[in-house]
Design a protein that fits this description.
Keywords: Kinase, Transferase
Shape: globular
Strand order of the largest sheet: 3-2-1-4-5
Radius of gyration: 18 Å
Order of helices and strands: EEEHHEHEHEEEHH
EC number: 2.7.1.59
CATH topology of the largest domain: Nucleotidyltransferase, domain 5
CATH architecture of the largest domain: 2-Layer Sandwich
Pfam family, one: BcrAD_BadFG
CATH class of the largest domain: Alpha Beta
Number of helices: 6
Distance between the termini: 65 Å
Largest sheet: 5 strands, mixed
Number of strands: 8
GO molecular function: N-acetylglucosamine kinase activity
Helix content: 40-55%
Number of domains: 2
Protein name: N-acetylglucosamine kinase of eukaryotic type
Length: 176
Amino acid sequence: MAFYIGLDGGGTKTKCVIVNEQMNVLSELVGGPSNFLVFGVDEVTESLFNLITDSIKQTGIKTSEIASVLLGTAGAGRREDAERLENSFIRKANESNLPIKKFVVESDARIALEGAFSGKPGSILIAGTGSIMFGKDSRGNIHRVGGFGRILGDEGSGFHIGRSGLTAVAKQFDGR
């Protein structure tokens, strides 16, 4: 029997789900953040490794039965960035005798878009720790707005809303 691990992560937390071939959920755990552009590849690799191994232990499945692992996370919009995390995780898994046949990192926005519309045209808005608008038109072209991080602009994100609130309080306190 084959099992699949899916992870959905961002700047606050990462959810890990293990399913069987019939898509029955066998395990669901939550771990730390997985935005490796903010927290670093090494720290995120370690956190993901622990989350995945804890999930595997919870189900009792054999690691050799895991067909693939897919992580959708903030910060993985550029292929070369995603490959850095993929390579780091695969190296860690090999060093730890965890035989993962396939480990893929993709943008959380792309995962959400494909999941919501099954490959058809549509658009999604992520407004979590960060924010991004992501869509696919009828010709299959991908379009995005935002998602540039807290420094360059994540309007509508939890970080932006919190910071705007604190800025307003500081201005009021100063009498500005």
